């Protein structure tokens, strides 16, 4: 996809901001890097709060819960709107998976944005703290997330939600990879049944990785080389994370392009950053879904680095990314079909 190379060019405001970014972390060992990354994420969230106006605390209920999964339990953070048109009003449901290369991160990374989204769109949110590699390599993270989606469906009434209003799964980066695999898995799982009103109705993939690239698609992937020394994600970092994750490259749960079929999947919304080594992953998978009859919506951010929305606050392109995220979720709600 060398013809997508132009998406790597930033506008003047973004170019000036990119010059001020510190060099990316050198990652030698994924586990040793976790504390350093999570400390950075914590500082960035505090800065983010200065740029995003949170709703009033009485407009939503925030609660951390522990839910059972195979071999233990995980935490989920739920956000439920409290302003209702009637006492029995039920909301659509979003189950969210954070990024971090399968070895880093936590629900707090996206907490501010998801609180705002919940109130603005009147949607219940389940933000999943899945277990991480290297302690819990593949397939534990996607399995944890799959169980969290099932838990959300089974406990929808407690979340003032109805999957019939919309059941969306979504995530950022590694979380988007998990999303792509789970959408395929859920399509073929009888638990997620359209007649019972439990089918997944939408998938959201923000700056996704799509794992192993089959030979027939490799000529369409140019960004891995073009942006291997990216501002925020480098090829050397990606390799360290992949080694820790130990994914099966032949599993559609990690490499969705290897699925036997891409038909009858739920509508998909993509946000793709132009100056991101994963750029062409997202562009390619959107094309494959679209060509298989899946309804898609794609927003591209020229010159934007991987995860720029988590650090380049106040820029016009970041504001657009944030607005588009809300509109993308709304588009998925509007296109939920039963």
Task: Walk me through the structure.
The chain is α/β, with parallel strands linked by helices. It has a single domain (2-334), classed as Alpha/Beta hydrolase fold, catalytic domain (Rossmann fold). It has nine helices and eight strands. The chain has helices at 12-20, 30-48, 111-121, 140-154, 174-187, 223-226, 235-245, 279-291, 316-334, and strands at 60-69, 72-81, 93-97, 124-129, 167-172, 202-206, 268-275, 296-305. The protein has an eight-stranded mixed sheet, sandwiched between helices. Helix 5 links the parallel strand 5 and strand 6 (202-206). The radius of gyration is 19 Å and the shape is globular. The chain starts with 11 loop residues before the first helix and ends with a helix. The mean pLDDT is 95.
User: Which of globular, elongated, flat, extended, rod-shaped describes the shape?
Assistant: globular
> What is the N-to-C succession of helices and strands?
HHEEEHEHEHEHHEHEH
From the 3D coordinates, which CATH architecture would you assign?
Answer: 3-Layer(aba) Sandwich
Give the number of DSSP strands: 8
Q: What's the story with the biggest beta sheet?
A: 8 strands, mixed
CATH class: Alpha Beta
Distance between the termini: 36 Å
What structural category characterises the helix and strand content?
alpha/beta
CATH fold group: Rossmann fold
Report the uncertain regions: none
Beta-strand proportion: 15-25%
Query: What portion of residues is helical?
Result: 25-40%
Q: What does the average pLDDT come to?
A: 95
As a whole number of angstroms, the C-alpha radius of gyration is 19 Å
Strand order of the largest sheet: 1-2-4-3-5-6-7-8
Distinct helical segment count: 9
CATH superfamily: Alpha/Beta hydrolase fold, catalytic domain
**Total domain modules:** 1
């Amino acid at each position: 996809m060398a013809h997508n190379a132009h998406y790597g060019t930033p506008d003047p405001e973004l170019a000036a901001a990119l010059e001020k970014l510190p060099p990316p972390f050198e990652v030698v060992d994924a586990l040793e890097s976790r504390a350093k990354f999570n400390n950075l994420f914590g500082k960035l969230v505090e800065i983010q709060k200065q740029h995003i106006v949170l709703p009033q605390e009485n407009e939503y209920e925030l609660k951390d819960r522990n839910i059972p999964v195979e071999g233990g339990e995980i935490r989920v953070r739920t956000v439920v709107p409290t302003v209702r048109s009637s006492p029995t009003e039920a909301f659509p449901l979003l189950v969210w998976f954070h990024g971090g290369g399968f070895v880093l991160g936590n629900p707090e990374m996206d907490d501010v944005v998801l609180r705002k989204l919940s109130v603005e769109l009147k949607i219940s949110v389940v933000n999943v703290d899945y277990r991480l590699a290297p302690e819990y390599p593949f397939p534990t993270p996607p399995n944890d997330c799959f169980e969290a989606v099932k838990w959300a469906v089974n406990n929808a009434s407690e979340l003032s939600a109805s999957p019939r209003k919309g059941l969306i799964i979504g995530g950022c980066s590694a979380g988007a990879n998990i999303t792509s695999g789970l959408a395929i898995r859920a399509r073929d799982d009888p638990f997620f049944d359209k007649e019972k009103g439990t089918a997944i109705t939408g998938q959201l993939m923000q700056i996704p990785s799509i794992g192993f690239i089959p030979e027939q698609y490799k000529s369409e992937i140019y960004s891995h080389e073009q942006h291997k020394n990216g501002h925020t994600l480098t090829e050397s970092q990606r390799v360290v994370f992949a080694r820790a994750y130990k994914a099966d490259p032949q599993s559609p749960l990690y490499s969705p392009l290897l699925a036997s079929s891409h038909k009858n999947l739920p509508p998909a919304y993509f946000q793709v950053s132009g100056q991101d080594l994963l750029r062409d992953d997202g562009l390619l998978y959107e094309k494959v879904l679209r060509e298989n009859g899946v309804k898609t919506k794609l927003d591209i951010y020229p010159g934007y680095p991987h995860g720029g929305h988590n650090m380049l606050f106040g820029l016009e392109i970041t504001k657009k990314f944030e607005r588009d995220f809300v509109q993308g979720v709304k588009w998925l709600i509007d296109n939920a079909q039963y």
